[in-house]
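Whiteboard transcription, Tuesday session. T.W. wrote the C-alpha cells on the left side:
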C-alpha cells in the first residue's frame, strides 16, 4: 500500500504541555507554510486544519510524498518557533500518524469531515466554515475571493510574508497576511468525492467529532488556547506584579492555575498546554 497512490489521513500527536500556535501571527505563518508545502510537494491537499496543539491533513499521493509533506511543514514551523520564541525544536519529536484511507468505503468523506469538525468539537465555533485556520469554508463555496494575487507582489514582500524565497503559483491569492486555502486546495477533487453539498453536510453532522459533541455535556474548554496564553501575563501581573509565570513560588503558581481554571473554565489538559507544564505537574498543583 505504501508504494501505491492512495488517500492519507495525516495527524500529528496531540501535544499535552505545549502549543504550536500562540497567536494569530503564528496561525498565519502556519497557513503560509501549508501553501508552500503544496507548491513544492508531490501530493494533492484535500483538507486540513491547524489546531493549537496538533494539525491534520488529508492528502492524495504516494506515502513517501505524504510523509515528506508533513515533515517539511514541521521543519519549517519548528524553525519559525525557534527564531521567534527561542523554542527548542520540540516538533521534531512530535509523532506523526499517517493512515491509508481505503477507497470506495466512504473513508475519505469521513476523514475530511473528521478534520473539519475538529474546531467545532473543541467548542471554538458553531460551524466548521467559521474556523479560519484550515479548509472548512472552501468546499462548495462559490464566493469570489478578494485579495492580492501573488504576481502583484514584489519578491521582497512575498518573501517577508511567506518567510521563504520559494516560488509559488502566480495566481494564488493572499489576504490578511496569508495565502487563501482556496488557492491551493484540490477543490474539484474533494468536491467530486462528496458529489453534493448536501452529502458533505451529512458526513459533517454524522462524523465522530459531531457525535462527541452530542455525547459530552461538559468538560469542553470554553476558550481557545491562544486567548488564555495571551491573558496569563496580565493575570500574573494583577496577582503578583510579575509579567510571567517565571519566578513564582509554588503557592503563587497554584493560585494562577486555579484562576485560569475558574476564569476560563479550563481543564487540566488545556492548562498544561498554555502554561508549558506537564499534565502531571498541572494536575498535582491543582489537586
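and on the right, the sequence the group agreed on:
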Amino acid at each position: 500500500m505504501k508504494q501505491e497512490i492512495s488517500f492519507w489521513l495525516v495527524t500529528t500527536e496531540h501535544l499535552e504541555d505545549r502549543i504550536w500556535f500562540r497567536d494569530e501571527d503564528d496561525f498565519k505563518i502556519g497557513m503560509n507554510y501549508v501553501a508552500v508545502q503544496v507548491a513544492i510537494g508531490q501530493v494533492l491537499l484535500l483538507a486540513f486544519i491547524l489546531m493549537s496543539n496538533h494539525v491534520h491533513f488529508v492528502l492524495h499521493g504516494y506515502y513517501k510524498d505524504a510523509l515528506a509533506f508533513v515533515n517539511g511543514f514541521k521543519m519549517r514551523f519548528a524553525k519559525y518557533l525557534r527564531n521567534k520564541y527561542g523554542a527548542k525544536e520540540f516538533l521534531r519529536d512530535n509523532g506523526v500518524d499517517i493512515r491509508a484511507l481505503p477507497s470506495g468505503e466512504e473513508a475519505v468523506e469521513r476523514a475530511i469531515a473528521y478534520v473539519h469538525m475538529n474546531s467545532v468539537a473543541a467548542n471554538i465555533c458553531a460551524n466548521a466554515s467559521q474556523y479560519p485556520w484550515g479548509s472548512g469554508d472552501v468546499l462548495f463555496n462559490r464566493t469570489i475571493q478578494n485579495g492580492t494575487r501573488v504576481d502583484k507582489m514584489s519578491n521582497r514582500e512575498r518573501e517577508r510574508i511567506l518567510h521563504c524565497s520559494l516560488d509559488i503559483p502566480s495566481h494564488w491569492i493572499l489576504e490578511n497576511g496569508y495565502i487563501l486555502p482556496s488557492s491551493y486546495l484540490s477543490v474539484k477533487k474533494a468536491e467530486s468525492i462528496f458529489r453534493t453539498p448536501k452529502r458533505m453536510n451529512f458526513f459533517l453532522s454524522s462524523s465522530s467529532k459531531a457525535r462527541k459533541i452530542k455525547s459530552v455535556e461538559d468538560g469542553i474548554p470554553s476558550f481557545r488556547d491562544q486567548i488564555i496564553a495571551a491573558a496569563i501575563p496580565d493575570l500574573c501581573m494583577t496577582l503578583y506584579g510579575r509579567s510571567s509565570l517565571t519566578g513564582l513560588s509554588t503557592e503563587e503558581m497554584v493560585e494562577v492555575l486555579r484562576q485560569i481554571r475558574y476564569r476560563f473554565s479550563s481543564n487540566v489538559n488545556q492548562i498544561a498546554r498554555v502554561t508549558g507544564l506537564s499534565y502531571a505537574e498541572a494536575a498535582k498543583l491543582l489537586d
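Someone added at the bottom: The radius of gyration is 20 Å.
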